[in-house]
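TICKET: design request
STATUS: open
ATTACHED STRUCTURE:
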């Protein structure tokens, strides 16, 4: 188990670089974090409220989206404020606060961000199973089983985050493994889904003609058109997550192989970490854009507040 002094020594190099840096750049980053934190809190609160009233989504799918929205809400409520305190402590020359808030920020941030990433992977697998199982989907993918999976993923995220206090190298390498596994699973799931839907549409078009593809799908128990829309919605969430997460993970790979930190790498680390956390503020907008019923419920809720 790494002791308090050793952990603080790991923060020392970053502290010295930030303390000597221009405060203007970090001030802009802090303002962005504050705006994104407030947006994440409000946006995900609306999404969680809308999920309770949304009837078009299957209960397991609702549970997965709820888990994603909850982790995003936790980012806005806890992770981003701790991140702001941690970095601003260096500018105010408060080394002890920098160290303590850094430990808390790393633990909370790692937990909710990894839970969010794993949940996004679970959503992709859920959509793959919906296509694979067809009419057996509701029989196999039950709310109880999804809750067990979510509980296991959150528990694993907590344990993985706690590794940071024991051995930071183990956690850093396991982060790379986790990212690659989730990336490979999610990407392959969406690619397989896309190919199967494309093959299905081509087969129907050859048999009945292009004009009736949509109508043919609509008359079947397994509604391919509706399924395609749900996959498209979740795929947009995944693409948004990837854009926010990929730069940070690439930078971490560079930092691990670097001899020493520079002011540029530290500034990029803070900026890319902000991008990761900002994903929590962007997701509610993607949900509203891609899922019409959620958009209407959120819109009506906002209208009630205005009146």
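STATUS: resolved
RESOLUTION: sequence designed for all positions
ATTACHED SEQUENCE:
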């Amino acid at each position: 188990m790494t002791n308090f002094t050793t952990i603080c020594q790991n923060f020392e190099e970053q502290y010295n670089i930030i303390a000597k840096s221009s405060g203007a750049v970090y001030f802009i980053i802090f303002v962005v974090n504050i705006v994104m934190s407030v947006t994440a809190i409000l946006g995900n609160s609306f999404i969680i409220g809308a999920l309770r009233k949304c009837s078009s989504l299957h209960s397991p799918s609702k549970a997965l989206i709820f888990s994603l929205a909850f982790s995003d809400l936790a980012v806005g409520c806890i992770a981003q404020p701790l991140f702001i305190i941690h970095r601003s402590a260096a500018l105010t020359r408060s080394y002890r606060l920098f160290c303590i808030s850094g430990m808390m920020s790393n633990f909370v941030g790692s937990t909710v961000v990894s839970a969010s990433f794993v949940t996004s992977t679970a959503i992709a697998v859920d959509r793959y199973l919906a296509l694979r199982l067809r009419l057996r989907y509701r029989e196999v993918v039950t709310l109880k089983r999804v809750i067990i999976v979510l509980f296991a993923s959150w528990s694993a995220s907590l344990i993985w985050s706690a590794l940071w206090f024991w051995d930071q190298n183990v956690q850093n390498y396991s982060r790379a493994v986790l990212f690659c596994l989730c990336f490979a699973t999610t990407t392959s799931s969406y690619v397989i889904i896309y190919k199967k839907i494309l093959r299905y549409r081509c087969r129907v078009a050859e048999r009945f003609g292009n004009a009736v593809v949509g109508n043919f799908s609509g008359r079947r128990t397994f509604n391919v058109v509706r399924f395609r829309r749900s996959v498209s919605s979740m795929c947009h969430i995944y693409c948004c997550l990837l854009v926010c997460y990929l730069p940070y993970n690439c930078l971490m790979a560079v930092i691990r192989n670097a001899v020493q930190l520079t002011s540029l790498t530290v500034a990029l680390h803070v900026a890319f970490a902000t991008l990761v956390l900002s994903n929590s503020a962007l997701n509610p907008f993607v949900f509203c854009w891609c899922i019409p019923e959620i958009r209407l419920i959120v819109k009506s809720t906002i209208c009630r507040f205005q009146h």
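CLOSING REMARK: The chain is about 90% helix and 0% strand. Residues 215-221 have pLDDT under 50 and may be disordered.
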